[in-house]
């Protein structure tokens, strides 16, 4: 979806259409969760501190997020996907991979399917989406970013090599800003430069990710579209209106966040053993502390005790704390190999 949260707000409130808006944060606190395209022309983007966003765009309008509304629209969009294929792998509320090798409606072209899906999303939600079409996940993702907003772009198998050779290294999905800068220092500016590096060299420089880099610059990505992506953690966090520095206040805020996290955890339904506290300071430096328990968490007091045991006077800094977060992970899933399997037969 194109600037999803911001687009939903502009659709629901016509007074915001055509104006630079930021979802989340405020003029002097917090972080931008999403920015409209009008705001992006000023350099405002997601994950940017609100204070910087406000300086870059003085007329920026901050809007409180409405996640239940975003989830509602996201469900409508997924219902469109399932009209064409059951092989849908959601990445977030506003993005998904679809495998349309075999579809429910028998259309002969992935491009035609993508066009139909875009039209249905626009008709049912009033929002625009961008689609990327190719033979693997990496190239489909790459193609989806080419003509945003409201874009549709195809990378054919015979075009992939030439396209990737010319592509700037910072545009490769999976190569972050820091890694891209390291690559440029090593003389890697384009996909063609990356292709010249051996697998051994890339593995030595970038560890396990080296094999991924070696393959994607050649258009090789064998990952399947998985219908059910397993959730790795349940969490909650809060950005404060002012930095906090006293331990009683830190503890009080943590207890509120712990309660929200535990409520989400119980709804999730799987037992978890690892707890994490996240701390972001006034200068935007961030630390985390984690502990893995002997037994999965069952009661809120267990989560409370585990989190508070990770927090002591050493976390207090002169610049104060602007954000606290609590998370539960390391879920104990059932051994699916012991469950009966329903076999299918193609007729």
UniProtKB/TrEMBL annotation:
User: Which positions in this protein are listed as binding Mg(2+)?
Assistant: 94
Name of the top EC class for this enzyme: transferase
Q: Which GO terms describe its cellular component?
A: cytosol
Provide the site residues for: Substrate discrimination: 5
Active-site residues are 95
EC number, UniProt record = 2.7.7.7
Q: What cofactor requirement does the entry state?
A: Mg(2+)
Which compartments is it annotated to reside in?
Cytoplasm
Family under the similarity heading:
Belongs to the DNA polymerase type-Y family.
Q: What is this protein called?
A: DNA polymerase IV
The scientific name of the source species is Marinoscillum furvescens DSM 4134
Gene this protein is translated from:
dinB
